[in-house]
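As agreed, record copied across for absentees:
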Amino acid sequence: MVTKVKSFRVRAATPAAAADHSPPFDITTSTLRDAALAPTTLRAYNKQLSAFLSFTGCSLRALLRRPPQQIDALLARYIDLSFARHGSYEYANQALFGLVYRCPSLRLLLGEARLRLRGWKKILQQLRQSRSHPPLTWELTALFATVMAKWGRHAEAVATLVAFDCYLRVGELTRLTYADVLQPNDPRVGSAYTGMALRLAVTKTGPNQSVTLAKPQVQTVLLHYLSAYPFLAHQRIFAFTPESFRLLLKQVSASLGVGHIPYVPHSLRHGGATYDYLRGHTVEQIMFRGRWVATESARRYVQTSRALLIMLQIPVQLGHTAAVVAPEVDSLLPLLMDSVRRRNPRVGFSC
């Protein structure tokens, strides 16, 4: 008996059928859409999304052909590994937002990844609460600056005093240019103002703000520094990075026997505000000088400062040494600038 085999003709896929195999997501690449984001935000999204794609080993288009559950699982694993390797929470967050930006339909489908980011954020908050960064006193600030100058780190030494006096955030400090410094009798403002001030081009609460230098000692040291080294108007006067400054503060703390206290660059801003608060300045005055927007935030900021100072364990001898150095810091630092060679030859010459 002969079995008949039916033959089938394979028809070419219609456009509608072909469309079934395309990625079920919108890959949004639009110049106009990109222009709606701040350039720094767009760069951050693209950079961290690229890092995630390198981890997956495939392109964005190939990744988006996978089911949303697989994409979520991959991103969740990427975040887990970043946390385990002491990576950056912000970078992990930007990877997720970068993926959602390029594929908006994934916004509600990345539950596992978002859950890990939420847990990471909670851990960071707990660490910050248990390890508050205390304010630096004026005496210790002067001593820290003197040690830095003895090490030849003159830019950081002067910056330490300026950050304390002007309540500067580290980003505001490292962005200062020579033209941002208003010197005594500066013709740009005429005779109406004869003191010293700083223009802060970019701040957390808005562009183009300013702050006066209140302590004559800090004015003296800054003027000597600006005259000792050549600067062009557009050049940064403190040409170091926030990371290197943070590391130097740790090294100075350890050398003075207070390495157990978590001093960071923000301790200078906190310290300056605390100093003025303890000397009778009102919260409103401190808020204006520190460029805070919310009164409640500034009030809570200075309210906790005294308690944080009381909790510190400063060696008695160190406290005595700092008390002796502080009144003479405007003489010590210029002397050290003139006698100790700078360890960072790029200071004053980096744009």
Remarks:
- Strands lie at 181-182, 197-203, 206-212.
- The radius of gyration is 28 Å.
- The longest strand covers residues 197-203.
- Residues 12-27, 345-351 have pLDDT under 50 and may be disordered.
